[in-house]
Amino acid sequence: MKKYRNQIIKKPEKLSSYLFYQPFLLLIIGITGIIYNFGMLASPYFEGRLIDGIQDKESLNSIYILIGIFILTIFVVQVARILKRYFVRRLANNATYTMRLNVYNNILNLDSKDLDNADVGLLLSRAISDVHNSVESIRKFTTEIYDTCFLFLFYAIYLILFDYQMTLYAFIPVTISILVAFIMRKAIFSATSQSRKANGKLSGNTFDLFDNAITYRIYGRDQDNLKKYDETLTSYEKKTLKASLLTDTMIPLANAIALIGLIPIIFFGLQHVSNGDNLFAPIPKIMNETWTIGQFSTYLSTFVLMASKASHTAKLFSAIEKGLASWKRIQPTMKPYKGYPSLETVSFSPDLEVKDLSVIVDNKPLFSNLSFKASKGQIIGITGPIASGKSALGKVFIKKLDYQGKVMLFGKELKDYSLPEISGSVTYMGHKSDLLTETIKENIAFGESRDVIPYLKAVSFEPDMDSMPLRENTLVGNEGVKLSGGQQERIALARTIYHKKNLIILDDPFASVDPQTEKEILASLKKDFLGTIVLLISHRLTSFSDIDSVIVINGDGTVSVGRHADLLKSSKVYQNLYQLQSYSGEVSHHE
User: Fold this and answer.
1) For residues 386 and 538, what is the distance between their CA atoms, to the nearest angstrom?
2) Which of 131, 154, 524, 586 counts the most CB atoms within 10 A of its CB?
3) Separation between Cα atoms, residue 489 and residue 463, nearest integer Å
């Protein structure tokens, strides 16, 4: 069955695509379904035969043979039922796998800006519950087509063989029950849609409550936030209860209406038995030609089963409407699967050359006319006042911000880089550590097999592990909650150098570590980054005297570029930053 799990749907925007791409499974389900549902007629048939056999005082051997055939038939029918259910479940599991694969693929292929602005609760709801409900509608539809529609058809044909006129009378309330179920589907669809929306909102609030629990506690907003969450939960419960109530009421209501058909059956059927009337179209050697107690029992049992199945059309409508409500939510994102491209490294030249670079954000010029050069093995510091544009410069190199001017990165203009080339040539460490709820090792290696210990040593993390019994196999908790800010930063930095590319951008990587640890890490990085250009963005100037060059973004649109010692003489902004940190003890006073 694995070949179905790995197939890519050609038309993912159509719900039926997730059903019909598995023709072999559908064929098996069809064969076993027909055997099972046709065989379900065996129970009322053999019950009637046994009643007539006992009443006619047939020999015990004949009755035993009849019972043996009955048991064997039921066994075959139940085996067919088991196989049908198994293959329906296999079909549903494959559809779930394929649909979720497509949902995740579309989420991961979102533009970075769209992903940043996405509703996390909505994405989680789509990927988990909406996919589940959509596939459940496929599964129940497939199941009910055989267990309701085919079985209903077999029962109807069988009953007409007894008496077509009485069957038509009995069918009137059955038809009404189906019509009631059909009408109620709209109310169920509306209630289910509201329930799904409430579920998405609840997922978002739950994520927010968990993700920002410490922040709410610090500011004393726990109770207010819990009250808001309780209101969302109450709304969800009410809307879900309404949807469940409508769904659960529809089947017994439809069943009660359908069973009104017993009235003409009892009225006409007892007369047929009393008068010994002939059946309308009995099957030779299978059915008696006249009405008997056994025949009446067979007819009555068959109708009750058929009425029950008719009421289950309500279940079919409910499953379809519930699935469509969820499918409607995820359909806009169900686009054709896009393969994940392999990383490509650009290496026409070992140098980075920036000329007359200008960056404008929200119609506000951050800086202009920035020019500098860097070669592999060099570390370039970037600093400036708060909100001057330091991080914006770093984001230029991963194509998250547009720019004017010329940026020749390893012999190719940055604007001409594809995303695979950016991923293969540039490593970026942002402000957030973005740790996974995994071990330290997994947060660094991302599934690769190389040893992580050398990289933890490079960021001075080994002493921290001495207090951790599991060392690199220690779980960090949600977003690194079990670690200090400095530990989180150093693990993120270890991950960055573990996956280092020809250009590494470090955005404030030492904000939560002490100056001595910063110097130790930087000294280690210098040895490891001989074949790499490093752009070190920092508001702290602890180690800037030891790096190759410094870019100062002044905050007024101008920039200054030079060595640390030269900038202390020529740049007023740099002087002020350095002196302020010297007074606070963040940098040493020697030059």
Assistant:
1) 10
2) 131
3) 15
Q: How many helices (H) and strands (E) does the chain have?
A: 24, 10
Half-sphere exposure of 230 (CA within 13 A, CB side): 6
Closest CA to 339 of 419, 437, 241, 439: 419
Strands of the 559-562 sheet, one edge to the other: 426-429, 503-507, 533-537, 379-383, 549-553, 559-562
Residue 246 in contact with residue 162, Cβ under 8 Å?
no
| Among candidate residues 585, 582, 497, 587, the one with its CA nearest the CA of residue 546 | 587
pLDDT in tens, 17-72: 887 888 888 899 889 988 888 888 888 999 898 898 888 888 888 888 989 999 99
Strands (E), 330-432: 351-361, 364-375, 379-383, 404-409, 412-413, 426-429
Higher pLDDT, 462 or 358: 358
**Are residues 283 and 376 located together in one domain of the fold?**
no
The label of the residue with tokens 């015990």 reads 60
- Quote the crossing angle between the two packed helices 262-275 and 164-211, to the nearest 10°: 150
In a domain, 358, yes or no: yes
**Rounded to whole angstroms, how far apart are CA atoms 232 and 453?**
46
Burial class from Cβ neighbours inside 10 Å (0-12, 13-18, 19+) for residue 283 reads exposed
Residue type, 157: I
In this prediction the pTM is 0.61
Domain membership of residue 342 (yes or no) is no
Domain that holds residue 483: 351-584
445: DSSP letter: H
Q: In total, how many domains does the chain have?
A: 2
Residue 411 C-alpha from the chain's centroid: 40
Within this chain, do residues 233 and 272 fall inside the same structural domain, yes or no? yes
What's the whole-number mean pLDDT along residues 501-524? 80
Rounded to the nearest 10 degrees, the angle between the axes of helix 222-258 and helix 313-330 is 150
Residue 345 domain flag = no
d(CA 309, CA 214): 54
User: Does the CA dihedral 235-238-242-247 come out positive or negative?
Assistant: positive
What is the distance, to the nearest Å, from the Cα of residue 391 to the centroid of all Cα atoms in its chain?
32
Closest CA to 19 of 105, 127, 140, 130: 140
* Structure-token pair, residue 471: 């060392």
For 412, residues 6+ apart whose C-beta sits below 8 A from its C-beta are: 346, 348, 421
Query: Tokens 């686009």 map to which residue?
Result: 335
